[in-house]
């Protein structure tokens, strides 16, 4: 069974969608540990509620970024984590961490990448005036919100959308495609070739 480690900084609804998919038997994987850089993250409560190990690793408790990341890696290693899931983890990981888990880190971002990287992606989409927005699951490389794209889902932008209304429709799609992307990985159907992800239909 694929062992997952989830990193989350906030409310953890994407984490919840993965917990739910595992519980429903739709995703053959096990969440071994949830780690947060924020002591008050709702994600930690969600993990604890489902008897998943929940760990706070506070950046302020370490002298430098390398020690902070090493503490996270130690927690992941202790749990034999094979795939690292960034679910609203708002800290940029260093090349050291990315290389350690090369091609074994996934992220979800609330835009159709490569458009609207960074914070407030939904507001960026509204400000630009795009008619279609969405979300992206991708493998993480050393850039911010870059790396080989695994799945995307599109959402229509409405005339009267606010950041909140658009974000909430995109979030519904996030909750659908994140477990789906992890499932593809768990089934060995993802192949990275020339910086692109190929999805193998059957083995
Ligand atoms: C989600 O919308 C996720 O796509 C976004 O943060 C939110 C976390 O929500 N991530 C990023 O913007 C990463 N660049 P959640 O804590 O309820 O899953």
Rg calculated over all Cα atoms:
16 Å
Helical amount among residues, as a percent range? 25-40%
> What gross morphology would you assign?
globular
Bound compounds, each kind once, are: glycinamide ribonucleotide
How many helix segments? 6
CATH-defined architecture of the largest domain: 3-Layer(aba) Sandwich
Biggest β-sheet strands, sense, barrel = 7 strands, mixed
CATH H level, superfamily name of the largest domain: Formyl transferase, N-terminal domain
Strand order in space, largest sheet: 3-2-1-4-5-6-7
Tell me, rounded to a whole number, the average pLDDT.
97
- Given helix and strand content, the structural type is alpha/beta
Number of domains: 2
The N- to C-terminal Cα distance equals: 17 Å
Give the strand tally. Answer: 9
The CATH class of the largest domain turns out to be: Alpha Beta
Verbal overview:
The chain is of the alpha/beta class and 203 residues long. It folds into two domains: 1-102, Formyl transferase, N-terminal domain (Rossmann fold, 3-Layer(aba) Sandwich); 108-203, Rossmann fold (3-Layer(aba) Sandwich), CATH 3.40.50. It has six helices and nine strands; from the N terminus they run E-H-E-H-E-H-E-H-E-H-E-E-H-E-E. Strands 3-2-1-4-5-6-7 form a seven-stranded mixed beta sheet, with helices on both faces. Strands 8-9 form a two-stranded antiparallel ribbon. The longest helix has 24 residues, at 163-186. It is globular. The model has no long low-confidence stretch (mean pLDDT 97). It binds glycinamide ribonucleotide. Glycinamide ribonucleotide is lined by residues 8, 10-14, 87-88, 108-110, 121, 145, 171, 174.
